[in-house]
Specification:
The structure holds two protein chains of two kinds. Helix content of chain A is about 35%, strand content about 25%. By secondary structure, chain A is α/β, with parallel strands linked by helices. Chain A has one domain: 3-Layer(aba) Sandwich (Rossmann fold). Chain A starts with a strand and ends with a helix. By secondary structure, chain B is an alpha/beta fold. Chain B is about 30% helix and about 25% strand. Chain B has an eight-stranded mixed β-sheet, with helices on both faces. A four-stranded antiparallel β-sheet of chain B has the order 2-1-4-5. In chain B, helix 4 crosses helix 5 and helix 5 runs parallel beside helix 6. The longest helix of chain B has 18 residues. In chain B, about 50% of the residues are buried. At the A-B interface, helix 8, helix 9 and helix 11 of A face helix 6, helix 7, helix 8 and helix 9 of B. Bound molecules: adenosine-5'-triphosphate, adenosine-5'-diphosphate (ADP), iron/sulfur cluster (2 copies) and magnesium ion (2 copies).
Chain lengths: ~325, ~325
């Protein structure tokens, strides 16, 4: 049995919605956006675990909960067996060293007034690592080398606007690596980058993973990169994980109607589709997370829905070893 | 005669630091009812080419040389007044990059779509309303959307409205600049289906701009690859996807992760695209090209027809 690094149990994050005046006067109950609504999973040591799904399904919120940028509404998060929702100050500082996040936007995630040197020095200072400037510089140079920004001296004095998008994202990765973390949440780290650089950054993340024995939570809306980069993929829909399996199984043998539709919609770089109208098995768009449909939350769009679907929430069950799905087709038949 | 004939087009941004050669010596044809995909890295000049084609280059952009013939009419050098009356939106129109997020939040969809018809075309309010509703239906929207505000619509609905807007004056060609980039994959597939069916129904020619070669493959009859302001390869999609010739096209295709095919290790193109004020001498790709040889940094490669209708700008294919 693989060692579990991160374990998430019944995690929920509801964001309260402000009531309109009318709602208030009518005494309507306060409503909330159910960004993450009862999510459980385990991430094993050394693996890349992908959380995939359309925008707004709760991927980023889950990632931010794990790195403690947000507090959960309820549920538990364990890191190496320790519940991180109840850490002391000192333990929390230690946790922030071991767990890092890389953000989607290489333009917004770096302080525009910080030179590369300062961007990388800041976490060292916050964590009290490196007593002298030259010790810190040594670490910074090594971090830049590990993301192939060579010679590092050439980049130390630059501001983010003097770097290309790919270089900025490499600095963000260097910043995540510099504290020698065990676990990295990478939130759409390549989706704002050009295709030609995307491959470079994914390969780089793979290389540093092997070199430093890292574990990743890879958050993406792009199933193609998820398959390329991850060992297992969890598909989220409206705050819930609807399917989870190893990457190849999920892509080659998807079970949940939503996963099937997502996979059918992904374009391949092959010119065989240009004269065909593509069959997309589901209609419409994702409803708002403030109005989660009852029963199976996918039922209004589901071509297979049957009698229990709009009443009972389908349980998350293991239909074959390691392959989990939340759909009545697999539990009621 | 092709519907659109572009020859040696140069569109530069005349900045104080020197001209940004965003479109340099671009030539291609587009037939009626045909779709051309235009791909390349960010900043290579795709949108600039689109702006030049409808003659709406943002300042300090300017067409400095070349010819654009639409339906036989030369539009380079034509007074703006005439262009507005005869060509723009009527023969060629554009869906701008990010347009769905640039809709005016305080106007209803109906008002935003009918205003240009009323104020620029002198169409009566009733007729404009009628035409807008027809076009909303054409793009698969409920005509009642007319009364709604942009914030009441989903991303896919907004993009449909923007497509309807581009079609209002029945153009022969539309330039769609990254029309699906901000959309989720299912909505993206819906919009691609819509564009495909419009192409068929209206015998529309489409220039589909995207940095995403997988998305383009879903719609393009022909594909053009741009690098640093130039088209470096153009030809039938089958040829380019299955048998790319230019080193840059090969590298780009090698960098795409595929969902349905397991790839062990993706390729990538080291280095970054060049500065377009001082592009590299000779072949603009030479600083990043693994195959470069003696003439590459000195002579500009010619545009060579390697198969019927398939052109490549690379010394490797020059007869010597
Ligand atoms: N108003 C402007 N003034 C000066 N240079 C400009 C201006 N607009 C664009 N450019 C430059 O022209 C070149 C081409 O830009 P363009 O917007 O056409 O690229 P693109 O291929 O559409 O990129 P993207 O994929 O990012 O949309 C770039 O080098 C850009 O920096
Ligand atoms: N700070 C917040 N306040 C209110 N709602 C939020 C906040 N952050 C996220 N949400 C909502 O929670 C849902 C999930 O968002 P997010 O986790 O960002 O999704 P994803 O990363 O999958 O696109 C969305 O409906 C989003 O609008
Ligand atoms: S539970 Fe019912 S509605 Fe939900 S995905 Fe399965 S079949 Fe469809
Ligand atoms: S001309 Fe030379 S440098 Fe340019 S793509 Fe061809 S081989 Fe490479
Ligand atoms: Mg997100
Ligand atoms: Mg553009």
């Amino acid at each position: 049995m693989a060692e579990v690094v991160v374990k998430v149990e019944n995690l929920k994050k509801y964001f309260p919605l402000r009531r309109s005046v009318v709602e208030f006067l009518k005494g309507a109950p306060p409503r909330s956006v159910k960004a993450v609504d009862d999510v459980s999973f385990e991430i094993h040591k050394g693996e890349v675990f992908a959380l995939a799904g359309e925008s707004g399904c709760g991927k980023t919120t889950t990632g931010r909960l794990i790195v403690k940028l947000l507090e959960p509404t309820s549920g538990k998060i364990y890191f190496n067996g320790t519940d991180i929702t109840t850490l002391s100050r000192e333990e929390e500082r230690e946790y922030r060293k071991k767990v890092q996040i890389i953000f989607q936007d290489p333009y917004g995630s770096l302080n525009p007034r910080f030179r590369v040197y300062n961007v990388l020095e800041e976490p060292l200072i916050l964590q009290g690592i490196g007593d002298t400037r030259s010790e810190r510089e040594e670490l910074i140079i090594r971090a830049l080398e590990s993301v192939r920004m060579v010679p590092p001296e050439e980049f130390l004095g630059r501001f983010p606007h003097q770097l290309s998008g790919g270089q900025r994202q490499r600095v963000a990765i260097a910043r995540a690596l510099i504290l020698n973390p065990e676990f990295i949440v990478a939130d759409e780290p390549v989706s704002m980058l050009d295709l030609s650089i995307r491959a470079e950054i994914l390969n780089l993340m793979e290389d540093v993973k092997k070199r430093f024995g890292l574990t990743y939570l890879y958050i993406t809306h792009d199933l193609s990169t998820a398959r390329y980069f991850s060992d297992r993929i969890a598909i989220m829909y409206l705050g819930k994980i609807v399917e989870l399996a190893d990457s190849d199984t999920l892509v080659e043998n998807p079970l949940h109607p939503y996963t099937k539709a997502l996979i059918a919609a992904v374009p391949e770089p092959e010119p065989s589709m240009k004269d065909v109208i593509k069959e997309i098995p589901i209609k419409g768009e994702v409803p708002s997370a403030a109005n989660v449909p009852p029963g199976c939350r996918f039922h209004p769009r589901c071509p297979y829905r049957f009698e229990p679907c709009d009443k009972e929430e389908p349980p998350f069950i293991e239909v074959e070893p390691g392959h989990w799905v939340a759909c009545h087709l697999y539990s009621k038949r | 005669m092709p519907l659109l004939e572009v020859r040696n087009l140069k569109a530069y941004y005349l900045t104080s630091r020197g001209p940004v050669k965003a479109v340099d010596n671009v030539s291609f044809d587009l037939e009626r009812g045909e779709s051309l995909g235009l791909a390349g890295e960010s900043g290579c000049g795709k949108s600039t080419l689109g702006f030049a084609l409808i003659n709406l280059l943002p300042p300090p952009g300017k067409i400095v040389d070349g010819s654009i013939k639409i339906d036989g009419i030369e539009v380079v050098g034509k007074p703006d007044e005439e262009l507005r009356r005869e060509v723009r939106w009527k023969k060629i129109s554009m869906i701008f990059q990010g347009a769905m997020n640039a809709l005016n939040p305080v106007l209803t969809i109906g008002d935003q779509l009918s205003e240009p018809l009323i104020y620029h075309q002198g169409v009566s309010k009733e007729e404009a309303t009628e035409r807008v509703k027809e076009h909303l239906e054409l793009v698969g929207l409920d005509p009642d959307i007319y009364k709604r505000y942009p914030h009441e619509l989903s991303g896919g609905m907004k993009q449909r409205a923007v497509i309807a807007m581009a079609l209002l004056e029945h153009p022969d060609v539309i330039i769609a600049d990254e029309p699906t980039t901000a959309l989720d994959v299912i909505v993206q597939a819906q919009i691609l289906n819509l564009l495909k069916s419009l192409k068929k129904k209206l015998n529309l020619s489409i220039i589909f701009i995207s940095h995403d070669l997988a998305v383009i493959s879903e719609i393009a009859d022909r594909l053009a690859i741009m690098y640093a302001g130039e088209i470096v390869e153009i030809g039938p999609s089958e040829n380019l996807y299955l048998n790319p010739r230019h080193p840059y096209t090969q590298k780009l295709l090698g960098a795409i992760p595929r969902l349905k095919k397991k790839v062990e290790r993706l390729e990538f193109i080291p280095g970054a695209p060049p500065n377009l004020i001082h592009p590299p001498s000779g072949c603009r790709f030479h600083p990043r090209c693994p195959y470069r040889f003696e003439p590459c940094d000195k002579e500009e490669p010619p545009f060579i027809e390697v198969e019927p209708g398939h052109y490549v700008r690379c010394h490797l294919f020059a007869k010597r």
